[in-house]
Amino acid sequence: MQDVGVTVGVEEEYHLVDAETFELADMPEVVTAAIALMGSEAQGEISTSQLEIATPVCTSLSEVRSHLTRIRASADEVARQQGCRILAAGTHPTGTWHEQRLTVGDRYLSLFERWGLLALQQMITGCHVHVNVDDPELAVRTMDYLRPDLPVLLALSASSPYWEAVDTGYASYRTQWFGRWPVTGMPDAFGTKAAYDDLVADLVETGMIDDASHLYWDVRPSTKFPTLEVRVADTMPLLDDVVLHAALARSLVRVSAADAVRGEALPALRSEVVRASRWRAARFGLEECLLDTRAHVLRPAAEVVRGLLVRLRDDLEELGDWDEVSGLLEESLARGSSAARQRAVALAASADLHAVSAALVDETVRA
Question: Which CATH number do you get for residue 318?
Fold first, then answer.
Protein backbone atom coordinates (compact mmCIF):
# COMPACT_ATOMS: atom_id res chain seq x y z
CA MET A 1 0.00 0.00 0.00
CA GLN A 2 1.21 3.49 -0.79
CA ASP A 3 1.86 5.80 2.16
CA VAL A 4 -1.43 6.79 3.82
CA GLY A 5 -1.82 9.07 6.77
CA VAL A 6 1.82 10.09 6.97
CA THR A 7 0.81 13.74 6.83
CA VAL A 8 -2.15 15.66 8.22
CA GLY A 9 -3.38 19.24 8.00
CA VAL A 10 -6.17 21.10 9.76
CA GLU A 11 -8.47 23.86 8.53
CA GLU A 12 -10.63 25.83 10.96
CA GLU A 13 -13.31 28.46 10.42
CA TYR A 14 -13.82 31.16 13.05
CA HIS A 15 -16.55 33.66 13.80
CA LEU A 16 -15.40 37.26 14.16
CA VAL A 17 -16.98 38.99 17.16
CA ASP A 18 -16.88 42.44 18.73
CA ALA A 19 -14.20 42.50 21.43
CA GLU A 20 -16.51 44.07 24.02
CA THR A 21 -20.01 42.79 23.26
CA PHE A 22 -19.00 39.45 21.68
CA GLU A 23 -21.70 39.93 19.06
CA LEU A 24 -20.93 38.90 15.49
CA ALA A 25 -18.82 41.51 13.70
CA ASP A 26 -19.18 42.30 9.99
CA MET A 27 -15.45 42.87 9.53
CA PRO A 28 -13.88 41.91 6.20
CA GLU A 29 -11.03 44.20 7.27
CA VAL A 30 -9.94 41.51 9.73
CA VAL A 31 -9.70 38.98 6.92
CA THR A 32 -7.65 41.38 4.79
CA ALA A 33 -5.27 42.06 7.68
CA ALA A 34 -4.99 38.36 8.54
CA ILE A 35 -4.03 37.48 4.97
CA ALA A 36 -1.44 40.28 4.94
CA LEU A 37 0.14 38.90 8.13
CA MET A 38 -0.38 35.15 7.74
CA GLY A 39 -0.30 34.65 3.99
CA SER A 40 -1.81 31.40 2.76
CA GLU A 41 -2.60 30.31 6.33
CA ALA A 42 -5.60 32.68 6.31
CA GLN A 43 -8.43 33.36 3.91
CA GLY A 44 -11.99 34.63 3.82
CA GLU A 45 -15.12 32.54 3.98
CA ILE A 46 -18.64 32.93 2.62
CA SER A 47 -19.62 35.51 5.27
CA THR A 48 -17.73 38.72 6.09
CA SER A 49 -17.98 37.77 9.78
CA GLN A 50 -15.86 34.64 9.25
CA LEU A 51 -12.17 33.84 8.91
CA GLU A 52 -10.70 30.53 7.73
CA ILE A 53 -7.22 29.29 8.62
CA ALA A 54 -5.10 26.33 7.56
CA THR A 55 -2.06 24.74 9.16
CA PRO A 56 0.99 23.75 7.14
CA VAL A 57 1.35 20.05 6.34
CA CYS A 58 2.14 18.23 9.59
CA THR A 59 3.62 14.81 10.37
CA SER A 60 2.95 14.71 14.12
CA LEU A 61 0.34 15.78 16.65
CA SER A 62 2.91 18.05 18.29
CA GLU A 63 3.23 19.92 14.99
CA VAL A 64 -0.57 20.21 14.72
CA ARG A 65 -0.75 21.62 18.24
CA SER A 66 2.16 24.01 17.74
CA HIS A 67 0.84 25.42 14.46
CA LEU A 68 -2.73 25.82 15.71
CA THR A 69 -1.52 27.54 18.89
CA ARG A 70 0.49 29.99 16.82
CA ILE A 71 -2.20 30.53 14.18
CA ARG A 72 -5.01 31.09 16.68
CA ALA A 73 -2.87 33.61 18.57
CA SER A 74 -1.98 35.44 15.35
CA ALA A 75 -5.57 35.49 14.10
CA ASP A 76 -6.84 36.78 17.44
CA GLU A 77 -4.15 39.47 17.58
CA VAL A 78 -5.10 40.69 14.09
CA ALA A 79 -8.75 40.69 15.16
CA ARG A 80 -7.93 42.65 18.34
CA GLN A 81 -6.28 45.36 16.26
CA GLN A 82 -9.65 45.83 14.55
CA GLY A 83 -11.65 45.73 17.80
CA CYS A 84 -12.63 42.07 17.34
CA ARG A 85 -11.88 38.59 18.66
CA ILE A 86 -12.10 35.11 17.15
CA LEU A 87 -14.67 32.57 18.35
CA ALA A 88 -14.36 28.89 17.46
CA ALA A 89 -17.72 27.09 17.55
CA GLY A 90 -20.09 25.65 14.97
CA THR A 91 -22.56 28.48 15.49
CA HIS A 92 -22.50 31.84 17.26
CA PRO A 93 -24.94 31.73 20.21
CA THR A 94 -26.83 34.95 19.36
CA GLY A 95 -25.82 35.91 15.82
CA THR A 96 -28.42 36.26 13.11
CA TRP A 97 -27.98 35.86 9.37
CA HIS A 98 -29.97 39.06 8.79
CA GLU A 99 -26.88 41.00 9.87
CA GLN A 100 -24.43 39.16 7.62
CA ARG A 101 -23.01 40.03 4.22
CA LEU A 102 -21.76 37.76 1.48
CA THR A 103 -18.01 37.95 0.95
CA VAL A 104 -17.12 39.53 -2.38
CA GLY A 105 -15.80 36.99 -4.87
CA ASP A 106 -16.83 34.96 -7.91
CA ARG A 107 -17.11 31.70 -5.96
CA TYR A 108 -19.48 33.13 -3.37
CA LEU A 109 -21.51 35.01 -5.96
CA SER A 110 -21.88 31.74 -7.85
CA LEU A 111 -23.10 30.04 -4.67
CA PHE A 112 -25.69 32.77 -4.15
CA GLU A 113 -26.88 32.54 -7.74
CA ARG A 114 -27.29 28.77 -7.41
CA TRP A 115 -28.58 28.43 -3.85
CA GLY A 116 -30.23 31.77 -3.19
CA LEU A 117 -31.08 32.42 0.46
CA LEU A 118 -29.19 29.35 1.65
CA ALA A 119 -25.92 31.04 0.72
CA LEU A 120 -26.80 34.17 2.70
CA GLN A 121 -27.74 32.09 5.74
CA GLN A 122 -24.46 30.12 5.87
CA MET A 123 -23.59 31.36 9.34
CA ILE A 124 -21.93 28.13 10.46
CA THR A 125 -18.32 27.00 10.78
CA GLY A 126 -16.55 23.66 10.66
CA CYS A 127 -13.21 21.95 11.15
CA HIS A 128 -11.67 19.97 8.28
CA VAL A 129 -8.80 17.48 8.52
CA HIS A 130 -6.76 16.53 5.46
CA VAL A 131 -5.09 13.11 5.56
CA ASN A 132 -2.77 12.13 2.73
CA VAL A 133 -3.98 9.30 0.48
CA ASP A 134 -1.89 9.44 -2.67
CA ASP A 135 -3.87 6.90 -4.70
CA PRO A 136 -7.19 8.41 -5.95
CA GLU A 137 -8.75 4.97 -6.32
CA LEU A 138 -7.85 4.05 -2.76
CA ALA A 139 -9.13 7.41 -1.51
CA VAL A 140 -12.63 6.70 -2.81
CA ARG A 141 -12.65 3.16 -1.49
CA THR A 142 -11.45 4.40 1.90
CA MET A 143 -14.45 6.73 2.09
CA ASP A 144 -16.72 3.69 1.99
CA TYR A 145 -15.07 2.21 5.08
CA LEU A 146 -15.23 5.51 6.99
CA ARG A 147 -19.02 5.81 6.82
CA PRO A 148 -19.89 3.93 10.05
CA ASP A 149 -17.53 5.88 12.30
CA LEU A 150 -17.81 9.54 11.28
CA PRO A 151 -20.84 10.18 13.56
CA VAL A 152 -18.56 9.46 16.53
CA LEU A 153 -16.25 12.27 15.44
CA LEU A 154 -19.28 14.54 15.09
CA ALA A 155 -20.44 13.77 18.64
CA LEU A 156 -17.00 14.57 20.04
CA SER A 157 -16.86 17.90 18.21
CA ALA A 158 -20.43 19.13 18.78
CA SER A 159 -20.31 22.84 19.62
CA SER A 160 -23.42 24.44 18.11
CA PRO A 161 -26.44 24.18 20.43
CA TYR A 162 -27.69 27.74 19.88
CA TRP A 163 -29.11 29.37 16.78
CA GLU A 164 -30.16 33.04 16.78
CA ALA A 165 -30.35 33.05 20.61
CA VAL A 166 -32.52 29.91 20.75
CA ASP A 167 -31.49 26.63 22.34
CA THR A 168 -32.17 24.24 19.46
CA GLY A 169 -32.05 21.07 21.56
CA TYR A 170 -29.20 19.86 19.36
CA ALA A 171 -25.54 19.47 20.28
CA SER A 172 -24.60 20.21 16.65
CA TYR A 173 -27.29 22.33 15.06
CA ARG A 174 -24.73 23.29 12.44
CA THR A 175 -25.16 19.79 11.03
CA GLN A 176 -28.92 20.22 10.69
CA TRP A 177 -28.69 23.71 9.21
CA PHE A 178 -26.11 22.65 6.64
CA GLY A 179 -28.25 19.62 5.82
CA ARG A 180 -30.59 21.84 3.81
CA TRP A 181 -27.95 21.75 1.05
CA PRO A 182 -28.35 18.60 -1.08
CA VAL A 183 -24.58 18.12 -1.38
CA THR A 184 -23.93 17.62 2.35
CA GLY A 185 -24.01 14.58 4.61
CA MET A 186 -22.61 11.19 3.74
CA PRO A 187 -22.97 9.66 0.26
CA ASP A 188 -23.67 6.02 -0.49
CA ALA A 189 -20.71 3.68 -0.80
CA PHE A 190 -19.04 4.01 -4.21
CA GLY A 191 -16.87 0.94 -4.57
CA THR A 192 -14.71 2.48 -7.29
CA LYS A 193 -13.39 5.87 -8.34
CA ALA A 194 -15.21 5.41 -11.64
CA ALA A 195 -18.52 5.38 -9.75
CA TYR A 196 -17.49 8.53 -7.90
CA ASP A 197 -16.47 10.23 -11.15
CA ASP A 198 -19.81 9.27 -12.74
CA LEU A 199 -21.74 10.87 -9.89
CA VAL A 200 -19.66 14.05 -10.07
CA ALA A 201 -20.32 14.22 -13.83
CA ASP A 202 -24.06 13.75 -13.27
CA LEU A 203 -24.18 16.51 -10.64
CA VAL A 204 -22.27 18.87 -12.94
CA GLU A 205 -24.58 18.02 -15.84
CA THR A 206 -27.68 18.76 -13.74
CA GLY A 207 -26.27 22.12 -12.66
CA MET A 208 -26.02 21.09 -9.02
CA ILE A 209 -22.26 21.78 -8.81
CA ASP A 210 -19.55 23.34 -10.98
CA ASP A 211 -17.00 20.71 -9.97
CA ALA A 212 -16.15 18.32 -7.13
CA SER A 213 -14.91 21.16 -4.90
CA HIS A 214 -18.59 22.07 -4.39
CA LEU A 215 -19.33 18.74 -2.70
CA TYR A 216 -19.63 19.39 1.03
CA TRP A 217 -19.85 15.80 2.23
CA ASP A 218 -18.63 14.65 5.65
CA VAL A 219 -15.61 13.22 3.84
CA ARG A 220 -14.46 13.84 0.27
CA PRO A 221 -11.38 13.52 -1.91
CA SER A 222 -9.71 16.91 -1.97
CA THR A 223 -9.56 18.62 -5.35
CA LYS A 224 -6.45 20.58 -4.28
CA PHE A 225 -4.30 17.99 -2.54
CA PRO A 226 -3.71 14.20 -2.64
CA THR A 227 -5.77 13.83 0.53
CA LEU A 228 -9.04 12.71 1.97
CA GLU A 229 -10.72 15.66 3.67
CA VAL A 230 -12.71 14.75 6.79
CA ARG A 231 -15.30 17.52 7.15
CA VAL A 232 -17.82 16.16 9.64
CA ALA A 233 -16.82 18.22 12.69
CA ASP A 234 -18.03 21.48 14.14
CA THR A 235 -15.29 24.00 14.82
CA MET A 236 -14.12 23.26 18.36
CA PRO A 237 -13.16 25.95 20.87
CA LEU A 238 -10.65 23.93 22.91
CA LEU A 239 -7.34 23.19 21.23
CA ASP A 240 -7.10 19.79 22.94
CA ASP A 241 -10.31 18.71 21.23
CA VAL A 242 -8.98 19.78 17.82
CA VAL A 243 -5.77 17.81 18.32
CA LEU A 244 -7.82 14.79 19.41
CA HIS A 245 -10.07 15.13 16.36
CA ALA A 246 -7.09 15.37 14.00
CA ALA A 247 -5.53 12.28 15.56
CA LEU A 248 -8.71 10.21 15.34
CA ALA A 249 -9.42 11.34 11.78
CA ARG A 250 -5.91 10.44 10.64
CA SER A 251 -5.98 7.04 12.32
CA LEU A 252 -9.46 6.27 10.98
CA VAL A 253 -8.30 7.01 7.45
CA ARG A 254 -5.22 4.83 7.90
CA VAL A 255 -7.17 1.89 9.32
CA SER A 256 -9.94 2.22 6.74
CA ALA A 257 -7.45 2.37 3.88
CA ALA A 258 -5.75 -0.78 5.19
CA ASP A 259 -9.15 -2.52 5.32
CA ALA A 260 -9.80 -1.46 1.73
CA VAL A 261 -6.43 -2.78 0.53
CA ARG A 262 -7.01 -6.11 2.25
CA GLY A 263 -10.48 -6.33 0.73
CA GLU A 264 -12.23 -6.56 4.09
CA ALA A 265 -16.01 -6.76 3.80
CA LEU A 266 -17.71 -3.42 4.23
CA PRO A 267 -19.96 -3.22 7.30
CA ALA A 268 -23.55 -4.02 6.30
CA LEU A 269 -24.95 -0.54 6.69
CA ARG A 270 -27.78 1.08 4.77
CA SER A 271 -27.56 4.79 4.04
CA GLU A 272 -30.71 5.36 6.10
CA VAL A 273 -28.89 3.96 9.14
CA VAL A 274 -25.86 6.16 8.48
CA ARG A 275 -28.15 9.21 8.38
CA ALA A 276 -29.90 8.12 11.58
CA SER A 277 -26.57 7.61 13.36
CA ARG A 278 -25.35 11.00 12.19
CA TRP A 279 -28.59 12.66 13.31
CA ARG A 280 -28.34 11.11 16.76
CA ALA A 281 -24.75 12.32 17.16
CA ALA A 282 -25.85 15.82 16.17
CA ARG A 283 -28.87 15.73 18.47
CA PHE A 284 -27.21 14.48 21.65
CA GLY A 285 -23.44 14.81 21.29
CA LEU A 286 -21.72 12.93 24.10
CA GLU A 287 -24.56 13.36 26.57
CA GLU A 288 -26.81 10.47 25.55
CA CYS A 289 -26.61 7.20 23.64
CA LEU A 290 -25.00 6.86 20.23
CA LEU A 291 -25.74 4.22 17.63
CA ASP A 292 -23.14 1.48 17.53
CA THR A 293 -23.40 0.98 13.77
CA ARG A 294 -21.44 -2.25 13.83
CA ALA A 295 -23.62 -3.93 16.47
CA HIS A 296 -26.78 -2.08 15.37
CA VAL A 297 -27.67 -1.13 18.96
CA LEU A 298 -27.76 2.04 21.06
CA ARG A 299 -25.02 2.34 23.65
CA PRO A 300 -23.91 5.10 26.03
CA ALA A 301 -21.81 7.56 24.05
CA ALA A 302 -18.69 6.90 26.13
CA GLU A 303 -18.87 3.18 25.30
CA VAL A 304 -19.16 3.82 21.57
CA VAL A 305 -16.31 6.35 21.64
CA ARG A 306 -14.05 4.02 23.62
CA GLY A 307 -14.96 1.17 21.29
CA LEU A 308 -13.67 3.20 18.36
CA LEU A 309 -10.47 3.94 20.25
CA VAL A 310 -9.92 0.23 20.88
CA ARG A 311 -10.20 -0.49 17.15
CA LEU A 312 -7.64 2.23 16.43
CA ARG A 313 -5.21 1.28 19.19
CA ASP A 314 -2.72 -0.70 17.12
CA ASP A 315 -2.47 2.08 14.57
CA LEU A 316 -2.19 4.82 17.20
CA GLU A 317 0.59 2.86 18.91
CA GLU A 318 2.38 2.49 15.58
CA LEU A 319 2.20 6.26 15.15
CA GLY A 320 3.37 6.85 18.72
CA ASP A 321 0.10 8.67 19.48
CA TRP A 322 -1.63 6.20 21.79
CA ASP A 323 -0.77 7.73 25.18
CA GLU A 324 -1.63 11.26 24.12
CA VAL A 325 -4.82 10.35 22.25
CA SER A 326 -6.20 8.03 24.91
CA GLY A 327 -5.53 10.70 27.54
CA LEU A 328 -7.14 13.46 25.49
CA LEU A 329 -10.18 11.30 24.81
CA GLU A 330 -10.78 10.54 28.49
CA GLU A 331 -10.46 14.25 29.29
CA SER A 332 -12.95 15.07 26.55
CA LEU A 333 -15.46 12.54 27.86
CA ALA A 334 -15.02 13.85 31.41
CA ARG A 335 -15.76 17.47 30.54
CA GLY A 336 -18.49 16.69 27.99
CA SER A 337 -19.17 18.29 24.64
CA SER A 338 -18.78 21.99 24.01
CA ALA A 339 -22.55 22.10 23.56
CA ALA A 340 -23.06 20.82 27.11
CA ARG A 341 -20.50 23.28 28.50
CA GLN A 342 -22.20 26.17 26.71
CA ARG A 343 -25.53 25.24 28.25
CA ALA A 344 -23.90 25.05 31.69
CA VAL A 345 -22.50 28.58 31.26
CA ALA A 346 -25.92 29.84 30.17
CA LEU A 347 -27.56 28.25 33.20
CA ALA A 348 -25.05 29.81 35.58
CA ALA A 349 -25.50 33.20 33.89
CA SER A 350 -29.30 33.16 34.11
CA ALA A 351 -29.65 32.43 30.39
CA ASP A 352 -27.34 35.30 29.35
CA LEU A 353 -25.96 33.99 26.06
CA HIS A 354 -23.43 36.81 25.85
CA ALA A 355 -21.68 35.03 28.73
CA VAL A 356 -21.62 31.93 26.53
CA SER A 357 -19.98 33.84 23.69
CA ALA A 358 -17.42 35.31 26.09
CA ALA A 359 -16.62 31.83 27.42
CA LEU A 360 -16.18 30.51 23.88
CA VAL A 361 -13.72 33.29 23.04
CA ASP A 362 -11.79 32.48 26.20
CA GLU A 363 -11.60 28.77 25.29
CA THR A 364 -10.59 29.58 21.72
CA VAL A 365 -7.50 31.57 22.63
CA ARG A 366 -6.56 29.73 25.82
CA ALA A 367 -2.94 28.59 25.56
Answer: 3.30.590.20
How many structural domains does the chain have?
1
Inside any domain, residue 75: no
Using CA atoms, how far apart are residues 266 and 1, in angstroms rounded to an integer?
A: 19
pLDDT tens digits for 160-204?
A: 999 999 999 999 999 999 999 999 999 999 999 999 999 999 999
Closest CA to 159 of 342, 362, 364: 342
Q: What is the rounded radius of gyration, in angstroms, for the C-alpha atoms of the chain?
A: 19
Q: Which residues make Cβ contacts (< 8 Å) with residue 280, sequence separation at least 6? A: 151, 288, 289, 290, 291
Q: Model-level pTM?
A: 0.97
Could you tell me if residue 321 is inside a domain? Answer: yes
In a domain, 70, yes or no: no
Q: For residue range 62-102, what is the model confidence (pLDDT) as tens digits?
A: 999 999 999 999 999 999 999 999 999 999 999 998 878 88
Distances (CA, A) of 331 to 237, 314, 325, 327: 15, 21, 10, 6
In this structure, is residue 53 part of a structural domain? no
Q: Rounded CA gap, 333 and 344, in Å? A: 16
